[in-house]
Design a protein that fits this description.
With 85 residues, this protein is α+β, with helices and mostly antiparallel strands. It has a domain at 12-57. It has helices spanning 3-6, 52-64; strands at 16-18, 26-30, 34-38, 45-47, 69-71, 82-84. Strands 1-4 form a two-stranded antiparallel sheet.
C-alpha cells in the first residue's frame, strides 16, 4: 500500500484568502526591455482576516513548539486576555 493511498485530504478550518489575489504572477517593467516578476509567495494562503505576517509568525511558533495565541479582545488595556492552544 502506497503512502498516497493512506493520505487523507482535510479542508481548512476557516475561510482562507490568496495573498496574491489569484494572480499567477505580478510584473513590473524595468526600463525599455526588462521586467521583474513575483511568481510566488510563502505563505500563499492565509486566514481571511489576517495578513501574511501573521501566518509567518504562527509557522515559527509551531516549528519551535510555542503555544499559538490569539487576542481575545482589544489589544489595550486587556493584555492578559489571550486564548492559546
Amino acid at each position: 500500500m502506497s503512502a498516497m493511498s493512506q493520505m487523507e485530504r482535510k479542508p481548512f478550518e476557516g475561510e482562507m484568502r490568496d495573498v496574491m489575489d489569484g494572480a499567477g504572477r505580478w510584473e513590473i517593467n524595468v526600463h525599455d526591455h526588462g521586467l521583474v516578476a513575483l511568481v510566488d509567495v510563502m505563505p500563499r494562503l492565509v486566514p481571511a482576516e489576517k495578513t501574511a505576517d501573521f501566518a509567518i509568525v504562527q509557522a515559527a511558533r509551531v516549528s519551535y513548539g510555542w503555544p499559538i495565541c490569539q487576542r481575545a479582545g482589544p489589544p489595550w488595556p486587556s493584555l492578559p486576555a489571550m486564548r492559546c492552544w
